[in-house]
Specification:
By secondary structure, this protein is of the alpha/beta class. 23% of the residues lie in helices and 32% in strands.
Length: 183
């Protein structure tokens, strides 16, 4: 049993839960991309922890690359207008691209990215989202091909996910205490 950070009110996914989810997703991806040499793309920064685990759970040939985007505005909700801060180094024309995300909320970040990358004529473009946030009455703008787990509409941190750049290093997915972000 891992010790709980004092700012976290509960664990949604333990390290063991995460390992199980990642193994299952890695097996699905390895099966589907066995002959495709996919380019697996992580969107910085939140996805790096998941990417590092997921790529080691994939046992077919693959390559990696990274993108960094920033949403315009400082609001907690993404607007869907994103600026490319770091573009891919790899040409994706004719490639099978798999975008790796830590969490899908509105899906606006991803839908923008997918539109932009589709213009470069990849053979295919799919999404592996570790978490999908379930918000009543809200349907994400993107449907991921691979989903790790669904989480409730709470402030979630750990395993790459931050609040004000903190907590990304927690090895589990936890719910942040409201008094921490309401201060
Ligand atoms: C988070 C997450 C997704 C996006 C999801 O990134 O990593 O990219 O928000 O939100 P959406 O589905 O509503 O668009 P964030 O902008 O917090 O950057 P980070 O990865 O550096 O934490």
């Amino acid at each position: 049993m891992e010790s709980l950070h004092p700012d976290v009110q509960g664990i949604l996914l333990s390290e063991k839960d995460i390992q199980d989810v990642v193994s299952r997703m890695g097996a699905e991806i390895s099966r589907d991309y066995a002959e495709k040499n996919p380019l697996v793309v992580a969107v910085l920064r939140g996805a790096v922890v998941f990417m590092a685990d997921l790529m080691r759970a994939i046992d077919c040939p693959m390559a990696i690359d990274f993108m960094a985007v920033s949403s315009y505005g400082e609001g907690a909700k993404s607007s869907g207008v994103v600026r490319i801060v770091k573009d891919l180094d790899t040409k994706i024309e004719g490639r099978d691209v798999l975008i790796v995300e830590d969490i899908l909320d509105s899906g606006l970040t991803l839908s923008y990215l997918m539109r932009m990358l589709s213009n470069r004529n990849p053979a295919s473009i799919e999404v592996a989202a570790f978490l999908v946030k379930d918000v009543p009455g809200n349907r994400p703008a993107v449907t991921p091909r691979y989903v790790g787990a669904h989480v409730p509409d709470e402030f979630i941190v750990g395993y790459g996910l931050d609040f004000a750049e903190r907590y990304r290093n927690l090895p589990y997915i936890g719910i942040l205490k409201p008094e921490v972000y309401q201060k």
